[in-house]
Amino acid sequence: MEKSKVLVVGATGYVGRRIVKASLEQGHKTYVVQRPEIGLDIEKLQMLLPFKKQGAHLVKASFSDHKSLVEAVKKVDVVICTISGVHFRSHNLLMQLKLVEAIKEAGNVKRFLPSEFGMDPSKMGHALEPGRETFDQKMVVRRAIEEANIPFTYVSANCFAGYFVGNLSHLGTLTPPTHTVHLFGDGNVKAVFMDEDDVATYTIKTIDDPRTLNKTLYLRPPENILSQRQLVEMWEKLSGATLEKISISGEQFLAFMNDADYATKAGLGHFYHIFYEGCLTNFEIGKDGEEASNLYPEVKYTRMDEYLKIYI
Length: 312
Hints:
Layout: E1 6-9, H1 16-25, E2 30-34, H2 42-53, E3 57-60, H3 66-73, E4 78-81, H4 96-106, E5 111-113, H5 132-147, E6 153-156, E7 159-160, H6 161-164, E8 180-184, E9 190-194, H7 196-206, E10 215-218, E11 225-227, H8 228-239, E12 244-248, H9 250-258, H10 262-277, E13 289-291, H11 292-295, H12 304-308
Parallel strand pairs: 1-2, 1-4, 2-3, 4-5, 6-10, 7-9, 8-12, 10-13
Antiparallel strand pairs: 9-11
């Protein structure tokens, strides 16, 4: 079967650039949206040009120009959107509604993967404000996709290792703490941690797979289902260090969160749901979902003890 042609929207971002790389590596003809809004942002341009050298095709299109979006979409079979939905960077999730309209008009897309790649928003209706905004907006986009009868796959990628593993999930740093680590509660609630390159690999694997059509793909490889305490123990074993462990109760965490600024409070709310409620692992995958490592056992996903070695 001929491989689908892929359009990546948001290709210069944290997830997007990895999606482009994985798409090219897996042999897909890959198109990348080049938005005129980048203006004089030389760093974004210098990220786009190497994609072209690697074989990707740059397509000029803008969310403010519906016709250009439709023309871009008509070139491909699959659209993957990775625009940012975190408050401390930029929060543009509802811009995808314009992409939904373009896909609907173009009428040729076999699969749309909207910008999700975190927790499953359909299970986060109870989420704390203001972080709940992320989940609510993702659900708005989902409803638009489904009402337009656009074939989809939603990707729930859980915790990115760059943000959650290198720092042992200790707040305020991206590298391992040297003396003291704060544990959320007893540190034993299980979460799921993913190397971002593996997220991209699994995402591209799914686009031509009929088993994931109109379903959620959960990235939940068994050896990466770990507690924060297990992460800390991995690091101590690798580094030879012994960290002082200070437990933060749920009540203490919420009190700390209430004093934070808006963007920080949004992020802390997500931490609360992950590490106190266990929202990534406290449910079984049902008939509307599939687990990535089960579907694609050939992917040699990165284990977190291996991931942590870069910090030694």
